[in-house]
């Protein structure tokens, strides 16, 4: 339900706040010991001030009282904060007391008092807020910068402050007003005698406690989805709800739909009637617009879908923030940050509003979410479901899912545990999709022969470079090319590739048992028995040994190639175990220092033949080569894969670099493909020059491969390139804005909301034009 909570000129969303309140109250009792300590410390400082006068002689007692009560493990103030306070007192107690008394008692506006004290004493806002709160816990709160920023991001309504534009004093005063409003208009409904300190604890808990924060998000989606279903059933109720949205928002929507046709025109007429306080007959409005078009524009639309977009636009930023943060949290909790994310909000995958939303995690190596098995969470009316699902382009597999069918069941930890329990299955299913590469054909690239020489000498190599530079693509094509070169006329290429080429992906749960040998349980004659089971490397080694020993010429023995994608994602010493020595060139079968290791489960003696080769791929955005285990660095050659925008010239239909520059010019219509190539080069130049990023965190050219239409290019920038930049800058939007976009980039990012904007091809064209000068460099 629409419920706007006003905070002066700004506002908060009541629906989200009430979901947060119910979640917070579940956590309140669990956090009572910490809350009690906070109250005791504040009360102790307040009591001291009530019983004594602050003077140059007593002020050190006051700071000591606070320090003693706080201890070393409480988040109010750190030991360093107290050291600074005591240093100020020791340096000039008289001046400090004078400024402190003025901070507490002066009749000038609070923000002015704070600015004056901060300027005179050089003390930061967190410490100032603690001093103020001990002076009067009923009027002041402990300041929480991170909590305030999250509060705005998660609960803002139509109008929210830009904290970066506010003075320190104004920032604190506004935070206090937010807490006061939450105390009186939200908490007091369910918490008897709610205090200002309760409101501050509410902000701290729902923004800092991961369990509370993500339970809140799940609860919000549970309620919001159920509400949308009710609106779908009762359109008249939905219309009444939209009438309750802020007038300023409705006017903004009216302006956005002005001058448009079809469904957008119907929404415009609905909004126009609402703002004029007239009755709304959607069927009549739709029929009036329909006659202007040859085809029936209402084929995929009904009253709910027309109205839902207006309603969703009000919550859009908040819903997207919830889903993005939820996916990041789940990915981190299962230690799988290499997974990509995809979600569909209530706006629907085809921009036709729906009553449900969903989000998934999937391995990026498989392309998109449709081509992979996914860890998913679906928000249905009256149910949240989660587990493993298949993308639409992969075979269906059955696995038990789990769900919450009531708010009382909601627990983010249950989702995390469900993902962890299914993680091995998730990786195994996805690995099955890439274990048998398409052997129909391959592309021959200019560097194949140099890699061939490296492998003949060292037997293993790692392709390393930024994401999107064609490392896996190159490894797969080289492997097919090299196998093809070693075939006799009677050998069948497809059969050879299928039998001699394997691909695995390392990840945090990939183990020695998966790679070398493990134990599996089997039923035999009704009894449960445990037997050794070969991993992928042992299987390949045994097959390669047999082929090597059967070969007429050992030098021409059939080549077996194992590609290890994301080699740095696994615990390499643990995965290889004692076999790490066996892959060295001189330790292989038939060599001078041949070695065989007895395996722990089967007691087989493993040996690696000379005709088994390993190609690893490594994303340097995740880990520098310098950090790779020394045992691997010593046994592998390394080949760097930098971005290569020249590859894109032919791919996107240009005749060389000059043609790209010409087509990117204003005179030639600012071709979006040409601008994308030049802008990507410009961005990478800045990244290389950055002391914090460097060449390992450039953006690869492959993100633009296939970008033969404006729509595909917009998708690539919006869903791949810009999220990667955001990740590189650790979400520090201000640094990203200044370093890459020279303080611009408003067409691509909503800097105020700290998210990627919902831009179209025209907006992308304008933004990329700002990055590129006539010579294809950075403006």
TrEMBL record:
SUPFAM superfamilies per UniProt: P-loop containing nucleoside triphosphate hydrolases
A GO term, aspect molecular function: ATP binding
Protein name: AAA-type ATPase domain protein
Organism annotation: Natronomonas moolapensis (strain DSM 18674 / CECT 7526 / JCM 14361 / 8.8.11)
Domain of life: Archaea
Pfam name, any one: AAA_5
Parts forming coiled coils: none
Domain AAA+ ATPase: 457-646
Origin organism lineage: Archaea, Methanobacteriati, Methanobacteriota, Stenosarchaea group, Halobacteria
């Amino acid at each position: 339900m629409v419920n706007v909570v006003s905070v002066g000129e700004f506002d908060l969303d009541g629906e989200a706040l009430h979901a947060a309140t119910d979640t917070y109250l579940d956590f309140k009792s669990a956090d009572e010991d910490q809350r009690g300590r906070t109250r005791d410390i504040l009360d102790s400082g307040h009591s001291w001030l009530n019983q004594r006068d602050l003077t140059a002689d007593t002020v050190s007692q006051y700071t000591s009282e606070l320090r003693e009560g706080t201890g070393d493990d409480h988040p109010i103030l750190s030991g360093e904060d107290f050291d600074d306070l005591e240093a100020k007192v020791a340096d000039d107690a008289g001046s400090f007391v004078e400024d402190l008394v003025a901070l507490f008692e002066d009749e000038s506006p609070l923000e002015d008092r704070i600015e004056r004290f901060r300027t005179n004493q050089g003390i930061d806002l967190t410490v100032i807020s603690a001093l103020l709160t001990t002076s009067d816990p009923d009027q002041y709160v402990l300041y929480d910068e991170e909590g305030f920023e999250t509060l705005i991001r998660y609960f803002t309504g139509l109008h929210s402050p830009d904290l970066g534009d506010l003075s320190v004093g104004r920032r604190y005063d506004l935070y206090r007003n937010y807490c006061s409003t939450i105390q009186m208009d939200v908490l007091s409904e369910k918490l008897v005698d709610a205090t200002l300190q309760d409101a501050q604890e509410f902000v701290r808990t729902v923004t800092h406690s991961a369990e509370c924060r993500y339970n809140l998000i799940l609860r919000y989606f549970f309620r919001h989805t159920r509400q949308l279903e009710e609106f779908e059933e009762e359109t008249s109720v939905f219309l009444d709800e939209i009438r309750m949205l802020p007038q300023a928002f409705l006017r903004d929507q009216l302006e956005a739909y002005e001058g448009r046709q079809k469904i957008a025109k119907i929404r415009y007429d609905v909004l126009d009637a609402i703002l004029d306080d007239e009755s709304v007959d959607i069927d009549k409005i739709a029929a009036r617009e329909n006659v202007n078009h040859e085809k029936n524009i209402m084929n995929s639309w009904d009253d709910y879908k027309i109205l839902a977009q207006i309603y969703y636009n009000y919550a859009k930023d908040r819903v997207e923030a919830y889903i993005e943060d939820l996916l990041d949290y789940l990915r981190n909790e299962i230690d799988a940050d290499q997974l990509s994310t995809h979600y569909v909000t209530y706006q629907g995958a085809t921009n036709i509003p729906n009553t449900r939303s969903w989000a998934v995690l999937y391995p990026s190596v498989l392309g998109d979410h449709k081509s992979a098995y996914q860890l998913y969470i679906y928000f249905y009316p009256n149910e949240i479901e989660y587990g493993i699902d298949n993308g639409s382009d992969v075979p269906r597999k059955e696995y038990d899912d789990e769900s919450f069918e009531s708010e009382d069941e909601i627990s983010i930890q249950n989702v995390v545990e469900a993902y962890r329990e299914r993680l091995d299955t998730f990786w195994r299913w996805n690995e099955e999709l890439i274990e048998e590469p398409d052997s129909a054909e391959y592309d021959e690239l200019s560097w194949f022969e140099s890699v061939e020489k490296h492998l003949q000498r060292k037997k293993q190599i790692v392709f390393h470079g930024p994401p999107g530079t064609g490392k896996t693509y190159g490894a797969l094509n080289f492997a097919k090319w090299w196998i093809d070169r070693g075939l006799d006329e009677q050998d069948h290429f497809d059969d050879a590739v299928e039998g001699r080429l394997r691909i695995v992906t390392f990840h945090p749960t990939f183990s020695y048992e998966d790679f070398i040998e493990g134990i599996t349980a089997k039923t035999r004659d009704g009894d449960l028995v445990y037997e050794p089971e070969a991993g992928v490397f042992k299987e390949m080694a045994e097959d390669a040994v047999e082929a090597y020993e059967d070969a007429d010429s050992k030098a021409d023995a059939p080549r077996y190639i194992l590609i290890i994608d994301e080699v740095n994602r696994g615990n390499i010493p643990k995965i290889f175990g004692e076999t790490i020595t066996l892959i060295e060139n001189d330790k292989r079968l038939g060599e001078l220092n041949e070695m065989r290791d007895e395996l722990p489960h089967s007691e087989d003696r493993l040996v690696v033949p000379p005709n088994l080769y390993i190609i690893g791929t490594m994303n340097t955005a995740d880990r520098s080569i310098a950090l790779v285990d020394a045992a691997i660095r010593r046994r592998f050659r390394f080949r760097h894969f930098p971005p290569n925008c020249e590859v894109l010239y032919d791919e996107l239909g240009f005749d060389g670099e000059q043609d790209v520059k010409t087509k990117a010019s204003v005179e030639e219509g600012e071709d979006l493909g040409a601008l994308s190539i030049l802008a990507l080069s410009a961005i990478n130049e800045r990244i290389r020059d950055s002391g914090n990023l460097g060449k390992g965190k450039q953006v690869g050219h492959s993100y633009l491969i296939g970008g033969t239409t404006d729509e595909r290019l917009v998708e690539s920038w919006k869903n791949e390139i810009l999220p990667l930049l955001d990740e590189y800058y650790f979400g520090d939007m201000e640094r990203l804005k200044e370093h890459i976009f020279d303080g611009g980039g408003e067409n691509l990012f909503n800097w105020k909301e700290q998210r990627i904007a919902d831009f179209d091809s025209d907006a992308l064209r304008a933004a990329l034009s700002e990055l590129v000068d006539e010579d294809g460099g950075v403006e």
